[in-house]
Amino acid sequence: MEKDNLGLQELELKEKLDESIKICRSKSEELVNNLKYCLESRDFEKFNDFFDPKAVLNRCNEEIIGRNLIKNYINDLYIDKELKLYKVRTLIDSNQRHIACEWVTRRRDLNSDNEYEQGRASWYLKLSPNDYTVKTWYIWIDRVFDGEKVANLQVPIPKESGWIPCPIQYYTRKEMSEFLRLRCQSFEEEDLDLWGSYIHDDIVVRPPWNEQVNKNGCVEGAKEFFNNYDTPSISRMELLYDETIPNWCVYIQIFSSTNKKTGKKGEDIDFVFNEIIDGKVRYWRSYFNANFNKIFTENNFNFFIQTLSKCSKNQKNFENQKELNSSSNNNNNNNNNNNNNNNNNNNNNNNIIGSGKD
Prior knowledge:
By secondary structure, the protein is an alpha+beta fold.
C-alpha cells in the first residue's frame, strides 16, 4: 500500500511539474509576442508592464538601466522606423525562466526608404522569479548581413539552408553544461586535437554571412586564430536548457584574447546556439556585435568565425582544384590512349598495305 501511495505521489508531482512547464512556456511566448507587437506597431503605451522596475537592456553592448529609460530609448530608436520580425526559433528554460529568440528582421526608415533592409537578430531574456516581467534583455543585431534589400514584405523569408535538425537526443542539464565546459576548456588550452573531438564531421557553422564549414575547416580556422591571438578565455555567462529539445542549447559567453601583433586585449559578449548530436556540435549559429566602441576595442570572436569561413573556402577551392586536376588527368590519359590507338591502327594499316605489294 505504501509503495502504491508513493507511486501516486510521484505521478502527481510529475503532473504538477508538467503543468508548471506548460504555464511557463505559455506565459513566456506571450511575453515575446507582446514585445514583438510593441516594436512592430511602435505602440509603447503598455511597454512598462512587461519590465521589472530595475530592468536592464543590453543592446549591442550599449546598456540602459530602468524600465522608463528603456521605454524612452526603444521609442526613440523606432519612432520613425518600420520593423517586421519573423521568428526563426524560440528556446525556453522553464526552470530558470530564460528565453532565447532568433529573428529574421526587415526594417526601413519611414521618411526615406522604399525598400526594406533584411537582417538577423537574437534576443536573450531573463525573467523575474516572482512573475513574468523582464529583468534583463540582451539584443544582438546581425550588422554584417545588413544591406540586403527586399522590395516589399511579400518577398519570401530566407530559409536556414544547409542544416536539417537530427532527431532529438536526450541530454540532462548537467551533461550539457559539462560538455560545453570541456569544449571551452580545450579551446582555452589550445588543444586542437581535443577541441576537434567535440566537433561533428558534418558541422554547419552559420555566422552572420551564412558560411558553411566542416570539421577540418573548423580545426584549420582555430589554428589560424591561435597564430594571431593568445591567452584565449571563454567565460560562460548563461546556459539555456530547453527540456523539450534537450540536445539544443543557447549560451552567452564572454570571449576574450590578446592580439599578438598589437598586444591589445579585447573581449565581447556573444550569443551561441548549438545542436549537439552524439556528443559533438553539429550546428553552430553565432551572433556577435560587429560594431566597435571604446570598451570593446577588438572583436575577437568575430575574427575567429572569419577564420573558420576563410579556411572553409580554401578547403572547398582545394577540393574543386583536385577535381579539375583529376578531370584534366583523365582527359590527358584518354587523349594518350586515343593517340596510341591511332598509332597502332596506322601500323596495322601499313602492314596490310605492305602485304598487298608483296
